[in-house]
Amino acid sequence: MWVTNGGSTTETLIVWYVDKASFDNLHMTMMTYVDGALASKDEYNPDSPGFISKPTMLNEQTVVGQETVTVPAGTFNCDKSTTTDATGAVTNIWYNSEIPVFRFVKEETLNGTQVTSMTELTAYGI
Question: Which residue among 60, 74, 113, 119 is least crowded, i.e. fewest CB within 10 A of its CB?
Answer without folding.
Answer: 113
